Amino acid sequence: MNDSILIVPACEPGRGGGHLVRCMTLVKELRALGRETFLCLNSDKNNLLQTADFDRSWIITEAALHEKKWDIIVLDRFQTPEEELSRWKQIAPVIGIDEGGIGRDRFDFLIDILPNIEKIKPNISDPALLPLPAKKQSLSFK
Q1: Owning domain of residue 36
Q2: What's the number of domains the chain is made of?
């Protein structure tokens, strides 16, 4: 079975690039495992990937979403507004990564990578899921 997975990052100004980088990495890793996975970016955001090592055929725009049946949608959106979350939930079950805000309890599955003080507890919480660079050897001066 080859589930169709859609991954939707936060790309708004002021959000930094962490959500996008994490989502691009997730798409690559799931594709390497044989999963049919796409990154949802509107065409005006494609310029964010100009220098990235990322296969552009793995990008789908919101306009093309209904051309495919989605089995899972992963949102890495920081605080997804309730009306946006409702739209995604009409398409497929939704997994939230580090989601906060008032819609946190409406996700089908919730993953916290970063420690969180929210009242709604996640299904999984593990800082080890955060990809960190390998520890570099410290230089020794004599």
Answers
A1: 4-129
A2: 1
Q: Would you give per-residue pLDDT tens digits along the chain (142 residues)?
A: 468 999 999 887 776 677 888 899 999 999 999 999 999 987 655 565 665 678 888 999 888 998 899 999 999 988 899 999 999 999 999 999 999 888 899 999 999 987 777 778 888 887 767 665 566 655 555 5
- Beta carbons within 8 Å of 128's beta carbon, 6+ residues apart: none
Which amino acid makes up residue 61? T
In a domain, 135, yes or no: no
Joined tokens for residue 107: 């996700």
| Cα–Cα distance measured from residue 120 to residue 130, given in angstroms and rounded to the nearest whole number | 21
Residues near 131 by beta carbon (within 8 Å), at least 6 away in sequence: 22, 25
- Cα separation values, 68 from 35, 55, 75, 76, 139, Å: 15, 19, 18, 21, 52
For 95, phi then psi, to 5°, come to: -105, 135
For 125, the enclosing helix (H) or strand (E) is: strand 124-125
Beta bridge partners of 59: 39
Burial of 88 (0-12, 13-18, 19+ CB in 10 A): buried
